[in-house]
Amino acid sequence: MFLMIFINLNFMFLMTQNLYAIGNENIDSFSAAKKIINKIQKEHPYTIYCNCKYSGKKIDLQSCGYKVKHDAKRASRLEWEHVVPAESFGRSFVEWREGSPLCVKKGKSFKGRKCAGKNQEFAKMEADLYNLWPEVGELNGLRSNYSMAALTSEGAGGGGGVKATDAGDFGGCKAKIRENKFEPMDAAKGIVARTYMYMDQTYQGRGIISDKNKKLFEAWDKMYPVSDWECVRARKIASVQGNENLVLKSRCTNRVISTVK
Q1: What residue segments make up the domains of the chain, in order of their start?
Q2: pLDDT tens-digit profile of 89-100?
Q3: Which of 37, 168, 186, 255 is the most buried (most CB within 10 A)?
């Protein structure tokens, strides 16, 4: 009788564990992650928000009709974008908010992103390849840590005018920035939604998807289905990072993948 109870409890424990996704297991730093994802992404050298082609670290702005806003040098430079900004989940770590005894340099305490990096869980989240995508450097900077939104021509939520400091005209790239909110062009919305969904499912309790944006991401996911490259990329990342993207796994199963170049 005791043995039967033990077996049942053990089975229930294993079943409970399987309800939770496993995060990045193998990559410990953002710098290492950038080198790895750069190699993977070479098979599909296009930026996420504007679909600009790139070679090495150089963005071909003419390939997507990107209109420089302020910084031509940075606009021409490839950068690696955290679709879910590091600050969005970083502030859930005490090291980011308050610091740590480990975060002292030359007798002075510090906090924020560098201090959070002392926490192994944050370091692995920051280095998660599923959340890293190539982007136009200038747009990466302008997007900052703004949350995603469906914007109207009047601004976020449809009320008020567009502030003079807002960026909304990027030529052929139809991304929008209004009132500290960001809307990617349509081609990227499904990727963005599924990236947020993956991070939220995998790193639970970090406040990655707000109640307000849950329905938005569900809608984007349905409106803009998974692409061949998302599925191919996910397979390659899983082989290096050590964990599957369960959000993409369910959508890529039984999908016929064409050769992606």
Answers
A1: 23-249
A2: 999 999 999 999
A3: 37
